[in-house]
Amino acid sequence: MFQGLLELIINLWVFIRPWIILQPYERGARVRLGTIIKEIGPGVHLAVWFIDEFHVQNVMLQPQQWAEQSVTTIDGEQLVVSGSIEYEISDIIKYELKVQDPDESLMNRAQGAIAKFVAGHKYEDCTIEAVRRAVYTALRRNNACPAWGIRIKHVHIIDLAHHNVYRVMSAGSVSTLVIGDE
Prior knowledge:
Structural class: alpha+beta
Largest sheet: 4 strands, antiparallel
Number of strands: 9
CATH superfamily of the largest domain: Band 7 domain
Distance between the termini: 67 Å
Strand content: 35-45%
Radius of gyration: 23 Å
Number of domains: 2
Order of helices and strands: HEEEEEEEHHHHEE
Shape: elongated
CATH class of the largest domain: Alpha Beta
CATH topology of the largest domain: Tetrahydropterin Synthase, Chain A
Strand order of the largest sheet: 6-7-8-9
Protein backbone atom coordinates (compact mmCIF):
# COMPACT_ATOMS: atom_id res chain seq x y z
CA MET A 1 0.00 0.00 0.00
CA PHE A 2 2.82 2.39 0.87
CA GLN A 3 4.53 1.61 -2.47
CA GLY A 4 1.29 2.39 -4.37
CA LEU A 5 0.82 5.66 -2.50
CA LEU A 6 4.42 6.67 -3.17
CA GLU A 7 4.02 5.93 -6.91
CA LEU A 8 0.82 7.99 -6.99
CA ILE A 9 2.54 10.97 -5.37
CA ILE A 10 5.50 10.73 -7.77
CA ASN A 11 3.20 10.46 -10.82
CA LEU A 12 1.13 13.43 -9.66
CA TRP A 13 4.27 15.53 -9.11
CA VAL A 14 5.56 14.70 -12.61
CA PHE A 15 2.13 15.51 -14.06
CA ILE A 16 1.57 18.83 -12.29
CA ARG A 17 5.12 20.16 -12.01
CA PRO A 18 5.19 23.79 -13.10
CA TRP A 19 8.21 23.57 -15.41
CA ILE A 20 9.82 21.69 -18.23
CA ILE A 21 13.55 21.33 -18.84
CA LEU A 22 14.93 21.08 -22.38
CA GLN A 23 18.42 19.72 -22.94
CA PRO A 24 20.98 21.50 -25.19
CA TYR A 25 20.08 19.21 -28.12
CA GLU A 26 16.30 19.75 -27.82
CA ARG A 27 13.84 22.36 -29.09
CA GLY A 28 10.15 22.53 -28.47
CA ALA A 29 6.90 24.21 -29.32
CA ARG A 30 4.73 25.56 -26.50
CA VAL A 31 1.04 24.98 -27.18
CA ARG A 32 -1.37 26.91 -24.99
CA LEU A 33 -5.05 25.99 -25.19
CA GLY A 34 -4.59 24.52 -28.67
CA THR A 35 -2.59 27.42 -30.15
CA ILE A 36 1.16 27.35 -30.68
CA ILE A 37 2.59 30.24 -28.74
CA LYS A 38 6.30 30.08 -29.50
CA GLU A 39 9.39 28.00 -30.08
CA ILE A 40 11.38 27.22 -26.95
CA GLY A 41 15.05 26.33 -26.63
CA PRO A 42 17.24 24.65 -24.04
CA GLY A 43 16.72 25.52 -20.39
CA VAL A 44 13.93 25.70 -17.83
CA HIS A 45 10.49 26.88 -18.98
CA LEU A 46 7.51 27.55 -16.75
CA ALA A 47 4.34 25.66 -17.58
CA VAL A 48 0.76 26.44 -16.66
CA TRP A 49 -0.87 23.21 -15.49
CA PHE A 50 -3.74 21.99 -17.73
CA ILE A 51 -3.17 24.88 -20.17
CA ASP A 52 0.33 24.37 -21.61
CA GLU A 53 1.49 21.42 -23.65
CA PHE A 54 5.02 21.02 -24.99
CA HIS A 55 6.10 19.21 -28.17
CA VAL A 56 9.81 18.51 -27.77
CA GLN A 57 12.13 17.13 -30.47
CA ASN A 58 15.79 16.19 -30.60
CA VAL A 59 17.34 18.60 -33.14
CA MET A 60 20.65 16.78 -33.56
CA LEU A 61 21.51 15.28 -36.94
CA GLN A 62 18.80 12.72 -37.79
CA PRO A 63 19.99 9.75 -39.89
CA GLN A 64 17.33 7.83 -41.84
CA GLN A 65 18.06 4.82 -44.01
CA TRP A 66 15.65 3.58 -46.64
CA ALA A 67 15.19 -0.05 -47.58
CA GLU A 68 16.56 -1.56 -50.76
CA GLN A 69 14.53 -0.55 -53.77
CA SER A 70 14.50 -2.42 -57.06
CA VAL A 71 14.12 -0.27 -60.18
CA THR A 72 14.39 -0.94 -63.92
CA THR A 73 16.35 1.43 -66.18
CA ILE A 74 15.03 2.72 -69.48
CA ASP A 75 17.07 0.06 -71.28
CA GLY A 76 15.60 -2.78 -69.18
CA GLU A 77 18.42 -3.36 -66.67
CA GLN A 78 17.43 -4.07 -63.08
CA LEU A 79 19.11 -2.15 -60.26
CA VAL A 80 18.78 -2.35 -56.51
CA VAL A 81 19.42 0.93 -54.69
CA SER A 82 19.65 1.71 -50.98
CA GLY A 83 20.77 4.80 -49.16
CA SER A 84 20.32 7.21 -46.31
CA ILE A 85 19.51 10.82 -45.60
CA GLU A 86 20.84 12.95 -42.75
CA TYR A 87 18.82 16.01 -41.79
CA GLU A 88 18.41 18.57 -39.03
CA ILE A 89 15.27 20.19 -37.69
CA SER A 90 15.61 23.84 -38.60
CA ASP A 91 12.17 25.10 -37.50
CA ILE A 92 10.36 23.18 -34.76
CA ILE A 93 7.01 24.89 -35.38
CA LYS A 94 6.95 23.94 -39.07
CA TYR A 95 8.23 20.46 -38.19
CA GLU A 96 5.31 19.96 -35.82
CA LEU A 97 2.63 21.54 -38.06
CA LYS A 98 3.49 20.91 -41.72
CA VAL A 99 4.16 17.18 -41.99
CA GLN A 100 2.65 14.20 -40.19
CA ASP A 101 5.64 11.85 -40.37
CA PRO A 102 8.82 13.60 -41.54
CA ASP A 103 10.94 10.45 -41.73
CA GLU A 104 8.40 8.58 -43.84
CA SER A 105 7.82 11.66 -46.02
CA LEU A 106 11.55 12.02 -46.69
CA MET A 107 11.93 8.32 -47.52
CA ASN A 108 8.93 8.42 -49.88
CA ARG A 109 10.30 11.48 -51.67
CA ALA A 110 13.79 9.93 -51.93
CA GLN A 111 12.52 6.61 -53.28
CA GLY A 112 10.26 8.42 -55.74
CA ALA A 113 13.26 10.43 -56.98
CA ILE A 114 15.29 7.24 -57.40
CA ALA A 115 12.51 5.53 -59.34
CA LYS A 116 12.03 8.56 -61.60
CA PHE A 117 15.75 9.00 -62.26
CA VAL A 118 16.62 5.35 -62.88
CA ALA A 119 13.52 4.67 -65.00
CA GLY A 120 14.42 7.64 -67.20
CA HIS A 121 18.09 6.81 -67.76
CA LYS A 122 20.25 4.10 -69.27
CA TYR A 123 22.19 1.70 -67.06
CA GLU A 124 25.56 3.34 -67.75
CA ASP A 125 24.17 6.75 -66.68
CA CYS A 126 23.00 5.46 -63.28
CA THR A 127 26.11 6.10 -61.23
CA ILE A 128 26.12 6.53 -57.47
CA GLU A 129 26.83 10.26 -57.80
CA ALA A 130 24.10 10.80 -60.42
CA VAL A 131 21.48 9.01 -58.28
CA ARG A 132 22.63 10.87 -55.14
CA ARG A 133 22.36 14.20 -56.94
CA ALA A 134 18.86 13.33 -58.22
CA VAL A 135 17.67 12.49 -54.69
CA TYR A 136 19.22 15.62 -53.19
CA THR A 137 17.65 17.81 -55.87
CA ALA A 138 14.23 16.18 -55.42
CA LEU A 139 14.31 16.72 -51.67
CA ARG A 140 15.05 20.42 -52.15
CA ARG A 141 12.61 20.92 -55.05
CA ASN A 142 9.62 23.16 -54.34
CA ASN A 143 11.15 24.00 -50.94
CA ALA A 144 9.29 21.06 -49.37
CA CYS A 145 11.96 20.35 -46.77
CA PRO A 146 12.33 23.97 -45.62
CA ALA A 147 8.52 24.19 -45.52
CA TRP A 148 8.57 21.13 -43.21
CA GLY A 149 11.21 22.73 -40.97
CA ILE A 150 13.90 20.33 -42.19
CA ARG A 151 17.40 21.07 -43.50
CA ILE A 152 18.97 18.27 -45.58
CA LYS A 153 22.62 17.82 -44.67
CA HIS A 154 23.69 14.71 -46.61
CA VAL A 155 22.30 12.12 -49.01
CA HIS A 156 24.24 8.87 -49.27
CA ILE A 157 23.75 6.07 -51.77
CA ILE A 158 24.92 3.04 -49.84
CA ASP A 159 24.38 0.40 -52.49
CA LEU A 160 23.74 0.58 -56.22
CA ALA A 161 23.92 -2.86 -57.76
CA HIS A 162 22.91 -4.58 -60.98
CA HIS A 163 20.68 -7.53 -60.06
CA ASN A 164 18.10 -9.90 -61.37
CA VAL A 165 15.05 -9.43 -59.19
CA TYR A 166 12.27 -12.00 -58.92
CA ARG A 167 9.11 -11.24 -56.96
CA VAL A 168 7.03 -14.05 -55.54
CA MET A 169 3.50 -12.94 -54.77
CA SER A 170 0.96 -14.77 -52.66
CA ALA A 171 -2.24 -13.80 -50.88
CA GLY A 172 -1.47 -10.55 -49.06
CA SER A 173 2.31 -10.62 -49.12
CA VAL A 174 5.20 -10.04 -51.47
CA SER A 175 8.62 -11.64 -51.14
CA THR A 176 11.59 -10.44 -53.13
CA LEU A 177 14.44 -12.67 -54.16
CA VAL A 178 17.48 -10.79 -55.37
CA ILE A 179 20.08 -12.72 -57.33
CA GLY A 180 23.18 -10.68 -58.08
CA ASP A 181 25.26 -10.91 -61.22
CA GLU A 182 27.92 -8.45 -60.03
